[in-house]
Amino acid sequence: MGDYAALELDTRLRRLYPTRLPIMTRCPAGEVIVRVAYAGICHTDLAILQGDFQIDCDRLVLGHEISGIVSGVGKEVNWLRIGDKVAVNPNRLPNKYSAGTDEIPDIMIKASVTSIVEPLTDIFNSSFVSGIFPKNLKMAKVTPQYKKGDKHEAENYRPVSVLSGFGVLCESLSCVAHAWEHVTPLPHSARVAVLGTDLVGCLTASLLHVQGYRHVTLCENAEAARQRAHSLGLGYDMIDHNELCNKTFDLAIDCTGDAMIQQEAAHALGFGGHLLIFRSNSVKDRLCLSPFNIFTNEIKVTGSLINPYAFGKALTWASVLGHRYLDFNKLGVVSYPLKEYQEALETAKSDDAAKVVFEFDVSDVPTP
Q1: Does residue 87 contact residue 115 with C-beta atoms inside 8 Å?
Q2: How many domains does the chain have?
Q3: How do residues 123-140 score in pLDDT, each as one tens digit?
Q4: Which one of 183, 297, 314, 347 is separated from 93 by 20 to 30 angstroms, measured CA to CA?
Q5: Which 8-state DSSP code applies to residue 50?
Q6: How confident is the model at residue 4, as a pLDDT?
Q7: Hey, how many other C-beta atoms are within 10 angstroms of the C-beta on 184?
Q8: Are residues 60 and 122 in the same domain?
C-alpha cells in the first residue's frame, strides 16, 4: 500500500515531528482522493503551535489551505476526473441543512459544489484541521450529491478549473470574497483605504483593481510589505498608518488586526463611511470610538469572519485574477519542501514573506 511523509503535531508538547502515514488508495463511491500539490501555512497554524488554541486530541496532522490534483474518483462522482486540478474548501454546510432540500439557500449550493472537495476531518480524530498538510495522498469528501431531477443536481455545476498554485491561495481569497460581500454595492468613485499589505491586503487590493476601482490608498509601515505591494503594479497611493489622519475615506478595509490602526481609520471616514474589520490580533483589544461621530456621520462598522459559502466565488476570482495578480513572486509567497519545515515555520513567523507554502511533486499524476 505504501506510505507518505507528513508532519504530526504533539499537542501536549506543541512540537512537530516528521512521520510516515499510510497512503489511502480505496476510494468510496461518493468521495475522491486528492494528491496535494501545495499546502499553505496559516496564522491559525502558528497560533496552534504556540498553544493559543485548545486541541482535543494528542496527535494531529495540520492542514486547511490546500490545492492538488485528483488521483482517485468514486463511482458516484461524475463531475470530476483523475487529473483535475482542484482547490479544497475547508468549510462544510451546517448540519441543519440536508442535500436535496429546498432549505439550502442557492448561494450555499453553488459555493459548496463549485468548491469541489471538503477535507474528511475524521481521519485526524479532530474536528479542527488547520495549516500544514501531509505530503502525498489525502482522502477528501466530495460535497453531497443531490437527488436525480432536482434543480440543484450536482452534475449541473461544473467545477472551476484553477492551476494548483493559484488554488492554494483560494482559502485566503475566499475570506476576501466574503469580506467583499459586506461592502457591495460600492460605487467606483469610492475612496478606499486598504490597511496592511500582507497577502490578504494584496489580494484585497488586487480584487479592487481588477474591478476598476482607482481611488485606493494602501496603508503600510513595513518596508518589505510596501515593496511587495508596489511590485503588483496597481498604481495605488502608498502611505504610512500615521498619515491616515490627513485623509478621508468612504471605506476602510483593515487587514492588520491592529486596534490602534482600526481606530485611526474610523476617525478618517467621511459621511456614510464604512470600516470593515478583517482581523483582530487579541481578544483584549478595545476600540475607542465616538458615538456622536458614528451617529452624526452615519458610520458603519462591520466584522468579516473567515469565508462561509464564499469558496465558489474565490475559485472564480482566481480564474479572473490569473497570473497578472496571483504571481507568487510579486505577492511574496515562498515555497518550501516538507523536509525544510523548520525553516518554513521560521519564515512564516517573520516579515520575510507574505505567505509560506509547502510544495510537493505531483508529476506522476496522470492528466485527463
Answers
A1: yes
A2: 2
A3: 222 222 223 333 222 323
A4: 183
A5: T
A6: 67
A7: 7
A8: yes
312 domain-assigned:
no
Q: Which residues lie below 8 Å from residue 227, measured CB to CB, with a gap of 6+?
A: none
Do 226 and 259 share a structural domain? yes
Residue 179's pLDDT is: 95
- 3-class DSSP assignment, residue 7: strand
Closest CA to 255 of 188, 192, 211: 192
Q: What is the pLDDT of residues 239-288, one digit of tens each?
A: 999 999 999 999 999 999 999 999 999 999 999 999 999 888 888 899 99
Q: Is residue 311 part of a domain?
A: no
CATH number at residue 346: 3.90.180.10
Residue 241 lies in a domain: yes
Distance of alpha carbon 144 from alpha carbon 112, whole angstroms? 9
Task: Indicate if 181 and 284 belong to the same structural domain.
Answer: yes
Rounded to two decimals, what is the model's pTM? 0.80
Q: What is the mean pLDDT of the chain?
A: 77
Give residue 23's domain range. 3-169+328-359
Are 193 and 121 in the same domain? Answer: no
**How much helix, strand and coil, in percent to the nearest 5, is found in the chain?**
30, 25, 45
Write the pLDDT tens digit of every residue in 227-238. Answer: 999 999 999 999
Q: Describe the strand order of the beta sheet including 249-254 as a list of residue ranges.
A: 237-239, 216-219, 192-195, 249-254, 269-277, 300-303
Residues 125 and 219 in one domain: no
**SS3 state at 359:** strand
